Queue: 2 jobs
Job 1
Amino acid sequence: MTNIEAALAQLVRQDAPRVLALLAGRFSDLHLADDAVADALAEAAKQWPVQGIPDNPGAWLNRVASRRAIDRVRRLDVERRRTRVAAHELHADPNETTTMHDTFLIDDPSSDPNLPEDQLRLMFLCCHPALSTDAQVALTLRLIAGLTTDEIAAAYLIPTPTLAQRISRAKAKIRDAAIPLHLPQQLEHRLDAVLSVLYLVFNEGYLGRGEDPEPMRVDLCEEAMRLTRSLVELLPEHAEIHGLLALELFHHARHDTRLDANADLVLLPDQDRTKWHRPDIEQGNAALRHAMALKAPGRYQMQAMIAGYHTNAPDAGETNWSRIAALYDRLATIDPSPIVMLNRAVAIGMAESPQAGLDALPKGDDLATYHLFHAAEAELHLLAGSEEAARTAFAEARRLARNPAEIRHLDRRIADC
Amino acid sequence: MLYSDESAAPDFAPGSPEFDEMMGEWMAFNAELTEGGHFIGGASLAPTATATMLHKSPEGNSMTDGPYAETKEQLGGYYLVEAADLDEALAIADRIPMPYGHFEVRPIAFRPGA
């Protein structure tokens, strides 16, 4: 990559989202801001190879994009006035020459492009629950993380036009349904939506990275962690954001040991703990301590504590299963979802006895088609010494599994019984 | 209550002769209702792509992208309100004194006499 290419990539990823947030706030118009930033980025790609990289690329982008935005506002005004003239509706009002946008033009376009409020407002807009989850994810990656439509489409293995349409529909809904660009009054509640978008992106990167990693593909784990870190900086007093960061770091620490050289699954007890990424674990511990000091418990902190007990155990045999089971009990009080109840049963099975775990398995149809439910049941049967029951459950898991690595793993487990 | 297949609705460009003719028919119908003393209220809603759902239940509220697609519940009423933006409209919907229910919030595209 040449210097220019690197500088342009940095401009797109680092500076463009900040300038976009600033302009969207200043002009109260997401479409205008997005178009203006796109104009300015195109200008950088054309101008920089000839004239060189400006001393302060962020300030350059802010200046040029602001100018483009103002140009667009002026053009729109001219068009509007022309339409009115054509319709013989022009009022003889001297004030007609100014518009609501003109008041914003007085603002100094060289003002600080790092205003945290602008970034936050845009983040809450992208994760507004009036948008579908898919749309929230796409908008966040496009407008906050600064990924291109191509990059997002490739990361999610969907065609670029599909993703582009998803984004343009979301932007149309923001405009037509008048979803506002402001900090929500019930910040806590809306923060949940932002955190769940970030965790969805992280999980897509974590679970999606499979058979043949493409080096050029954007790493969604890294992107989610980058966004979580910037949210920590913007709202440092919110414990759950630190909790989410810790959770991501603990998972990320184990990332490279999840698959072996044959791309086969390696389960937690069998992973090579010497290859776990120490700096991630240390940072995860620090983020978790920070979260706990704020004394506002929540689901991400509890999940991070559970992940922390796993990740800090020197070997699988020393895992503190009774603490983990107790944490799942607490998590179940705020999130009694079937998946949490399943994990709780496994923890009880390890902490007390396999039979206690089997007894704690959630009943009902919710998980009947979830392969990992049957796999967990099979492992508990195996620990309890009932190989026949284990084989039956493994076979059911094998029948329902879709991921090739998981299917190979289950085939091996059936053969082991 | 006007039900129709939104995707099959004519999509004439504003200002085109077809658009003017279509609007003319609506205007004439609205004028007829008003002059006959029948008209109390009514509006043309923006397309369903602009809809947002507020779901209320004793366990807590949630919000999703609209429109409302279930047919188990019955339409029990509607409000026509002025709001600065979607959040204000949703906050108003939240105050409707029903402990549970689904509230679809949609902008108005056109309102006779407005």
Job 2
Amino acid sequence: MAYLGGEKGMSITVNGKQVELFESVQQLLAHYSLENRIVVVEVNRDIVMKENYATTRLSHGDVVEIVHFVGGG
Amino acid sequence: MNNRYARQALFLGENTQQRIQQAKVLIIGAGALGSASAEMLARAGAGKLTIVDRDYVEWSNLQRQQLYIETDVRQNLPKAIAAEKRLAQINSEITIAGIVEDVHGLNIEELMKSHTIVVDATDNFETSLMINDAAMKQGIPYIFGACVGSYGLAMPIIPGETPCLHCLLEHLPLDTMTCDAVGVISPIVQVIAAFQVMHVLKWLAGKTMAPIVQSIDLWKEERAEINVAKLKNPHCLTCGEKPIYPFLQFENQMKTHVLCGRDAVQLRPGLVQEYSLEQLASNISQQVTNLVVNPYLLSCQFEVYRIVFFANGRAIIHGVTDSKKARVIYNRFIQMGGACK
């Protein structure tokens, strides 16, 4: 697992891949440059509403799924 | 009778095969996703395939748009026509209608009428939201799909059951990545089209369609699946209690106006958004010449056209007198600029 700036020794699973722990959903989205994009985020099988991205804390072992809406085809 | 569908019928059953052969499928967009879906559905024996597209075949399409060949580019064939021709060679026993048309709020309902299911293969959210409105209004299942780079997503939208695209998007994205801005590789096209056609077959087979949005990035080897039932908005203006289908309304359509005697067309997008002209300029600087930016507008030479683009999305395109063509140029320009805030 490459160290990308999160908390050392702690990890979460994002879209099936293990990455280091980020403090909040908002920070995780910022890491992927998705803050201002249309995304649906799920933490441990529960969708996080947009207005709660900043206050939703992540913990070691959390399973996160992110779907990003794009236009193209 | 030949047995061209034998293997498929063995898997799906004769009843479903019958339903496929009675189905009338509308595919909007004959680009990469549309080509792939249309070919699969033609081979599957979909009774009627309607494929609508406003563009013509170019060299840059051939890498991933599987219905087209070099001759189509040389002949400047509209995609809908080239697609119809190729699909008829693949399956002469089905009805295929290629329609060269810019889909907008005033013609989408007529286009969609009498179809069983609609497959989204467009390259922009504005059209997708319009298709979503029309599909919800007419109670037709709508299979959303999109891809850029090596990433894509798909979801079945069933009127009265799943959330609709408007529930999920709420408003138009500020930063619309598209093929022209970031590129795309063909494997993701095949995967997303496969998801979409799978949803069509499952719907025709009478399966329950779960409100699950699936995404996959082939290059990064990442995938996600989210059940979005929770996002169904009871107040949604498209699928809620009091629908007004906002994207079908004329006020929300791109308006074009031919400027008499000026060899120019003005375009005004239906959904006004503020663009950062500086950011737009930096994104397009490699592809245009004579680039000028001031606080009010951006002006540049793009191919043989001079484009004057205002911060609210309004534009005047010089060197063209045809509204339809001006829209195509406008969309290519926006895509190239990454349509950023």
